[in-house]
Sequence to fold (785 residues):
Amino acid sequence: MAIDPQAHTRLLFGPFEFDSEAGELLREGLRIRLPRQPRQILLELLTHAGHVVGREQLRQQIWTDQTFVDFEHGLNVAMNRLRRALNDSAESPRYVETIPGVGYRFIGTVQEISAPGPGPRINQNGAPIASDEPRASGRNRKNAWVAASAAGLVMLAIVGSALWRLHRGPALTGKDTIVVADFVNKTGDGVFDDTLRQALTVDLEQSPFLSLVSDDRIRTTLQLMGSRGDARLSRETARQVCERVGGAAVLEGSIARLGNQYALWLRAENCRNGDVLDDEQGQASRKEDVLAALDRMVAGFRARAGESLAAVREHSVPLAEATTPSMEALQAYTEGRRVAFASGYASAVPHFRRALEVDPQFAMAHASLGRMYADIGETVQSSAEATRAWELRERASERERFYISFTYDRQVTGNLEKAQRTLQSWAQSYPRDSDALALLSGFATKGVGQFERSIDAARKAIANDPDCAPCYENLAESSLALNRVADAEAALRRASERGLEIADYAIFRFYLAFLKHDETAMLRETRRASAEPGAQDWMAHTEAMTLAHRGRLREARAMSRRAVAFSDQVGDRERTAIYEAGAAVYEAFSGNSRDAQMRARAALQLSKGRDVEYGAAVAMALSGGGAAADGLAADLQRRFPEDTFVRFDYVPTLRAFSALARGAPDDAVEELRISLPYETGLPGSRVVGFFGALYAAWARGEAFLAMHDGAQAAIEFRKILDHPGLVLADPTAALAHAELGRALALAGRVSEAKAAYQDFFALWQAADQEVPALRRVKSEYARLP
Fold:
């Protein structure tokens, strides 16, 4: 087909339209962002459809002589961007065929619009504008006329449903929230069950203007209403939920068969008075076209709701690209999300795997599977899935790309500074999105010691979504790290008042009681956790750490074995390994070198996870296994070159221990200089293992003792004692009293030294008398004048 590239033409192929004058590529009326070079390549291919366009021809038309050196790379990059925009594949092309060593050929059917002007777009009322009749020749003329007539009938229903709304203003404001009801499936095809509600949610979440009531909040509200958290969200139930949470509207949808077509319908109603705020209709000729039809309807709704057309176009990645073109893959993904909340993360893993078997390019399925693995403690598998999601991040919406990029830096590179910048950009782009703030209140800030910032983000997230369970945990943990016990208690109490309960709450309630020396409350939380299968192992490990903190090693070992047994029952190898590493650490600080090394080796046999390796290395370094500790430090540095914990805490601390072992305390102090800005952060080993906080300060204090500088050593050990809400029941929290006594005695402050030693003896009054650390401290105390 001969097409004049200089003329103002509109070229149609598949669901796409290319406007040669405006340089715009549209899919079903929605603009697709395409950089200049891929856009120019597409024009060349379309104007020579059916003919080979050589690489040299493309270079002369698009790349100048000055950029010749970069041409090959630039062309490959541009072609990849073009194929992603067209959802095309070099291996199985639908539009652009590669002619190896020669160039490319457009193999799709192209129709040229005869009259100039814009193609089908969304008008200010959210309804598509009909396009001109395409010009065709020969036997295609009749088919084109029939296709245009059928399209006109479909469009007539959509435009007709919009005419009654022309006089109305925007349906919603930038402060309103929406409850998405279940999508009613009248087709009899189970593939649409729950799937279209998930697709609708993904489409709507692309909007920075709209705010959806989260599924967590819906579940909590349903329970307060006396229903199951996973109850069906019918129109009436959704309306009741909407009223209870102070929402503005309920959005419901349905799909049915209409002859050989699929008919879709969306309606938004004011949840207080039942007024219809918007009504969208659409049709699809095939199952594979349903998502595209839903895209068009959602775009219309967003425009009618009050969002600017510019924002709709900018934030409208088609569902087939933002999720998957496969309804079967989307169905498995949707089921995985449902099961994760209903039955736990481990139960959801097979469903996400199934989604990826159907569509291995499904970016958010990889990201979600990575999250499931992370939450059950399988960090190696989590890292692999997060990496794959990051590689496929262009096949996701803008909002999901933020999530994927954050997850990659949180779980793979460990670069918390970079993860924090991603969350900041996410929060700025989607100011009403509580997920960005919830994640910002987590390890992106806690891990680098920015607890005030964590608290601020958690409070803002809770203001947006009062049922954000992790937000209360982050608020409590950051308050505790700043020794604000009352604030931490208030955060957990607020969560309980809203009917929220997760295993983390029981653990932190236990530690709050521990810090207040409330044995009754501690016992109450252990009994409560014993009835929760997901909390039994964690609470047993927590009890083991508190027993070791008091020098009761025989009881601590028995409790550690119990934690390992509980964890083994569910097959969680990495979590089991972190419990073994924690046991190795308390044995090492207590002076039981043989037991420490044995437990460290047991941990490493189970997992080579980052925090497991660090705990094992600390135990080795403190118990005479310096060579093994050095090897683990080198492995951490090699595997995690960007990781914030590894760079600024783990490796410097291990190198300092190594320097102390070879009698070079000056080197230890120098190694730890890089740790100073980060040492009050919450390390990864502290999350589940509850060890590792302020170990850099401990090592620095030991170095100053070796240098006979008691005053400086005392400063370091006081750091540990001044942060009880950060170190909790770490072995160092008790032993720091004894080390402070040594430091003060060295500085000649004998009466203060005796008081520090006595504080230690008070904590270890019920300790096993054979513990080497206790015998050593008693000997030191006896030598004081």
User: Anything to note?
Assistant: The mean pLDDT is 87. Residues 414-501 form a domain with the Serine Threonine Protein Phosphatase 5, Tetratricopeptide repeat fold (CATH 1.25.40.10).
